[in-house]
Design brief:
Blueprint: H1 2-8, H2 29-35, H3 62-69, H4 83-99, E1 101-104, H5 109-118, H6 121-136, H7 148-159, E2 160-163, H8 171-188, H9 205-210, H10 230-239, H11 241-259
Antiparallel strand pairs: 1-2
């Protein structure tokens, strides 16, 4: 209703179009301008602009460019509803496509190679169409192979393992970190103390301040601001998740530098 009232009052708006064809985001800065015309109103400053490869300019990596926009004083990038999530998906897709690999156990290698020879592009396309159709009609019953080629494709799902340890937040990365902890315990011994750090961002006014709330941090504990209840602190954090990330980094740095004494003089 608010949008309809906006149009009925002849107030300005932006007209966009839609299409069933996908747009390539690599080396195509105009795609980001089409996605967020309010973030790039002048058509400049988009990611991976080809002009940066010309003499006199310095290329900027996509991750560094996004991190810069999320740290500037203008919080429109931090508080945008879709910017953070879409750019995270773009970077995750690139990492998974560029450096991912498949692994197979040594004992399964002959079986995997035999199944690989039987699988063709037509078989994979047919099975993909069948799985999409089953998902559309909410049919979650097990799929039974119709021929030897489809059975070989199903066997490959058991033999092959997708290696994604280079992707941040993946289960493979967690497994690598666990292996590093075990290696440290074997080399240096078991730690003598264990503790859990819980910054409790929704209950700390510092997180609301980093999220952009108008809080006087000089009188943070002597005269706490009654306007910011627990619900308002959670709302400010949800509106600006970058503030929550900055708060967590601040707490982790203070723990490591002061409590553990890495930078203690």
């Amino acid at each position: 209703m608010e949008e309809l009232r906006h149009l009925k009052e002849n107030r300005p708006f932006i007209k966009t179009s839609q299409s069933s064809e996908t747009i390539n985001t690599r080396g195509n800065p105009d795609a980001y301008g089409l996605l967020w015309p309010t973030l790039f109103p002048y058509g400049v400053g988009m990611f991976e602009d080809p002009i940066r490869h010309k003499p006199g300019f310095r290329p900027i990596h996509l991750k560094s460019h996004v991190a810069h926009y999320l740290q500037i004083a203008d919080k429109r990038f931090q508080t945008h509803l879709s910017f953070i999530f879409i750019m995270q998906n773009v970077m995750m897709l690139r990492r998974s496509n560029n450096r991912s690999r498949l692994a197979v156990r040594r004992g399964w290698w002959p079986k995997a190679m035999t199944a690989m020879d039987l699988v063709t592009d037509d078989v994979l396309k047919h099975m993909t169409d069948v799985f999409v159709a089953k998902k559309a009609r909410k049919d979650f019953t097990p799929y039974h192979a119709e021929n030897e080629q489809e059975q070989a494709a199903l066997d490959l799902l058991r033999y092959l393992e997708y290696c994604s340890d280079h992707i941040e937040g993946s289960s493979a990365e967690v497994m690598v970190m666990r292996q590093e902890i075990r290696a440290l315990c074997n080399d240096s011994g078991t730690p003598s103390i264990f503790f859990t750090l819980n910054p409790a961002d929704t209950f700390n006014p510092l997180c609301s301040f980093l999220s952009g709330s108008d809080i006087n941090i000089d009188t943070l504990f002597d005269e706490p601001d009654p306007r910011f209840s627990a619900y308002q602190r959670a709302s400010s954090l949800a509106a600006n998740p970058v503030g929550g990330a900055r708060f967590f980094k601040l707490m982790a740095d203070q723990l490591i530098d002061i409590f553990l004494g890495f930078k203690r003089e």
